[in-house]
Amino acid sequence: MANIPREPREDVVVVLLESVAKGASLPWHRQKLVLILSAMRHFAASLEKAGHRVVLRKAPTYAEGLATLAQEFGATRVVATEGREQDMVDELERARTQLDALGVSLVLREDRGFLATREEFATWARGRKEHRMEWFYREMRRKHNILMEPDGTPSGGDWNFDADNRKPWPKGREVPPLWRTEPDAITREQMERVRGWSNRWGTVDTFALPVSRADAKAWLERFIVERLPEFGPYEDALVHGAPDLLHSSLSSLINVGLLHPLEVVKRAERAYREGHVPIASAEGFIRQILGWREYIRGMYWHLMPGLRTANALNAPLPLPQWFWAPDGEAYNGTTGGACEMRCLSDTIRQVRDYGRTHHIGRLMVQCNFATMLGVQPAALSRWFWAGFTDAYEWVELPNVAGMGTWGDGGALASKPYVASGAYVNRMSNYCGGCRYNVKQRTGPDACPMNFLYWDFMDRHRERFAKHPRMRMMTKHLDGMDADELVQIRTQAQQFRESLSYDG
Ligand SMILES: Cc1cc2nc3c(=O)[nH]c(=O)nc-3n(C[C@H](O)[C@H](O)[C@H](O)COP(=O)(O)OP(=O)(O)OC[C@H]3O[C@@H](n4cnc5c(N)ncnc54)[C@H](O)[C@@H]3O)c2cc1C
Ligand code: SF4
């Protein structure tokens, strides 16, 4: 997109390609397909309206599509944006080979959908033993002059207000409604198209994301007014049936190119400067985009290609069927029974029905459960990549194999994000209505998050015994009654064996 001439040119054809191979490479969520296919069509229409020559085509692969169209239009040069992730980098190299054979050159331009270049991040990362997000984020604040005072100090007197952002959702307070952009005729056509596609996942009828620039900007404005003022304090809160709560739900729109990250960051900063939003919320939100999003993308390239198979904790298991079918519905001809863990089944249902759940559901419920159970990071990553409307390998893989499962052995997070049921109980309203008892560690009603947590600590006791932030827990294990520990190990193993897994 960034490489399209501002003014239409007779000698330039803008090409948008649908790759059949890419579309069949994973069991993609139907809403993710609708988002991409419909956004492409809206974009094509807006370019045509502005006078550009546009071609939207389906091709067996991107490389073949480019070669065919280059011949059809007698092109001498193809200009494309550099690959955002490894598969696209490889595909563009295949395209280069095919185009070379036709005497057509391929020129790759920088991806302008980020606020740091790959080279910039690589320079920052080079020679550092530790790559903590916080240090990179501060450099980005200075570079883009966001939330900075004229004397070079951070606005509000601090770089980070995370300590203020840890509140559960108040009891009895109404949950804000999910936003809906009514699907127009173009979107409805794509919904019908993907509805019948086999080997795809997820509900299509609830699709309500923006697919045009105007609607995406309207969601940004709505977020700034309705949710940003209280974004910070409730960032970590979980509520049954609420995929967004006060989160922005903008990730899918930023990642697909409908919003630019800098416009989102600047809009949030303006809301703070104009006095509509407290610093803790403005900074907390800006850190997600200027800090986390850029850092995650940088770390993806820093850790590839090993990140795809990273499994530092030697987790052995495939993905439990529950992740595809939380209500015990048939999936790929089998059923794994209904998931009775209220936290896990609800967050998975949100993904199945909307293609999203917010950060804490992903990290502290889904990844937490999978890590403690012993699911291979690559198996979990495949689910995240296919199932979320905002997921692309460059962003889901570091989040899953790094932050979520500690598969990278600590390159991203100093310790695994594992927690017992007590955390879920503190931050959510899940446990009250759950069939399990969050206070029990063993026994038929014990919360699985509890025995899996202590079993995890036990299995990795040696590794974490000297870890400054984990040794308290391993010490607690040392003091645990021997019979209880045996019971925990047995119950965790029986639980593992009771589940159905991806074949
Ligand atoms: C296991 C796991 C998998 C994830 N997979 C993805 C993914 O595939 N795609 C994706 O965009 N985000 C991913 N995230 C990050 C984060 O959870 C989502 O960006 C966020 O939940 C999207 O909802 P939102 O737009 O309401 O976010 P908000 O909470 O409103 O945050 C604002 C924006 O900050 C950015 N952001 C925040 N955290 C991260 C992060 N850790 N990495 C990258 N960007 C971030 C997003 O662009 C997001 O829109 C993942 C996190 C975890 C723990
Ligand atoms: S009791 Fe355990 S399984 Fe049930 S909702 Fe709470 S944490 Fe989840």
Automatic annotation (TrEMBL):
PROSITE patterns: PHR_CRY_ALPHA_BETA (PS51645). It comes from the Bacteria. InterPro entries: Crypto/Photolyase_FAD-like_sf, Crypto/Photolyase_N_sf, DNA_photolyase_N, PhrB-like, Rossmann-like_a/b/a_fold, UV-DNA_repair_photolyase. Residues 1-114 form the Photolyase/cryptochrome alpha/beta domain. Pfam families: DPRP. Its cofactor is (6R)-5,10-methylene-5,6,7,8-tetrahydrofolate. This is Photolyase/cryptochrome alpha/beta domain-containing protein. It comes from Gemmatimonas phototrophica.
